[in-house]
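Section 3.1: Structural characterization of target chains.
Under the original work plan, the team committed to producing a structural model for every single-chain target entering the pipeline before any wet-lab resources were allocated. The record below documents one such target. The sequence was received from the expression subgroup and is listed exactly as submitted; it comprises 87 residues.
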Amino acid sequence: MKLQRNKAMDYLEVDEDSMVVFNPKSGDTHFLDGVGLDILKILIELTDFEELILNLSKQYEANEHEIRADVIEFVDTLKSKEIVIEL
């Protein structure tokens, strides 16, 4: 599965630890920090899900298998809010 952040959204990095995402279509605003921000930084470009897992495991010095379920759950949440799209 290939993922990318939705280019139709407006992204504002508030500081190095947080980001605001605005959906002009719905008017919804979402606040992300920590891992969510790191995921969106990786997904600026079209990225394979396995590559996302690998990048996060290196960044957080974590086992890929240990973080997989959490990343899947979080990415699913981002997809449901249309912040991330699957291509």
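The first helix runs from residue 34 to 42.
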